[in-house]
Amino acid sequence: MTVRFNSHLTSIPGYTPGVPKGHTAEDVAGSDLAQLASNESPFPPLPEVVEAITRAAGAMNRYPDPAATRLRRRLADRHEIEPGQISVANGSCDFLLAAAEALLEPGAEIVYAWPSFSMYPNMAAMTGAREIQVPLNEDQTHDLEAMLDEITAATQIVIVCNPNNPTGTYIPFAEISDFVSRVPDHVLVIIDEAYIEFQTRDDPALTVDLLKDFSNLVLLRTFSKTHSLAGLRVGYAMASPAFNGAVNAVRQPFSVNALAQAAAVEALEHGDQVQRQIEKSIIERVRIESEVRDLGLTTADTEANFSWISLGERGPEIEDEVVGVLAAAGIVVRPGRLLGGPGWLRVSYGTSEENDRFVAALGEAIELHG
């Protein structure tokens, strides 16, 4: 006899990392490859953050604070909410999988837009719940009305990724507020705001104010993008104490290591420097999207640190060839077919030099295969 694993394992999509085949993340970091596939920050951690990590490293013989007390207090102060409304985790994905474990089961339903973050399909597959994927509008934005129409008595979770990954499109606060107010109280509303700081249309603090009125609302944010801490994996949720207690009950203890906690605490002390880096990314976003359109291509209206680029009517046919030309030029991007959008490319913003290389190589690819 052989060991028999759970049958639902075959239905879990898994996750495809944004590194070229045959390479590791360490290979990419030590090479001249332009890593534009994973929506990471092109800026290294601030020197003060590195110093905080170094100081904390001397106490690695001790377990980290399981409650992440200092970090939760700093986050609570920053967002003007109670520490009990804050929970931290090993990246936002940790919260998503924990929410699935805490709320979903066979017979339950989860509603989300598609294409959207590739982790969402795992939530239904790992629990046996029914997933309902609502297609995006033609302009690559969430169809909130269609999502509301899909909610039933069996719906346990509805997720809105805002700005959306992989399209970068943003739903204004007024529409988010209206949506949340129309979702039934028995449904947990997760607003995944991993890229919220990159949007320029609303104050990111506005959604936090909604927590006062909606106990079924969860806001997910991360230090991976704007704070350049993707390698340490620190995410946090702003929600009711009941939600935080539920996800903490199903997660392993010590899920956020001591180095990550120290780095995140220090990063919060340098908001002005972080904001300047965000502004640099936004400037690159505007510049590169203009140059991509000059090549005759169209993009979704992004408010994130990446672009969703359409390769045109022949996009699904030429996508692999275009990605191959870019790879040969040392530029790594995400093929749209892996993200639910055949014929598109998701391209993160890197340094100015990396972005220039990308536009030049993309022009060559379009000339060859467009």
Structure description:
This protein has 13 helices and 13 strands. It is an alpha/beta fold. The chain has 2 domains: 7-45 and 271-369, Aspartate Aminotransferase, domain 1 (Alpha-Beta Complex), CATH 3.90.1150.10; 48-267, Aspartate Aminotransferase, domain 2 (3-Layer(aba) Sandwich). The strands form 3 sheets. Strands 2-8-7-6-5-3-4 form a 7-stranded mixed sheet, sandwiched between helices. Strands 9-10-13-12 form a 4-stranded antiparallel sheet. Helix 2 runs antiparallel to helix 10 (258-267) and helix 11 (271-294) runs parallel beside helix 13 (352-369). The model has no long low-confidence stretch (mean pLDDT 93).
Name the descriptors.
single chain, 370 residues, alpha/beta, Aspartate Aminotransferase, domain 1, Aspartate Aminotransferase, domain 2, 2 domains, 7-stranded mixed β-sheet, 4-stranded antiparallel β-sheet, 13 strands, globular
Number of spatially distinct domains: 2
Spatial strand sequence of the major β-sheet: 2-8-7-6-5-3-4
What is the CATH H-level superfamily of the largest domain?
Type I PLP-dependent aspartate aminotransferase-like (Major domain)
Shape designation: globular
Query: What is the correct CATH architecture of the largest domain?
Result: 3-Layer(aba) Sandwich
Which residues form runs of ≥5 with pLDDT under 50?
none
What is the total tally of β strands?
Answer: 13
Which range best describes the helical content: under 10%, 10-25%, 25-40%, 40-55%, 55-70% or over 70%?
Answer: 25-40%
Number of helices: 13
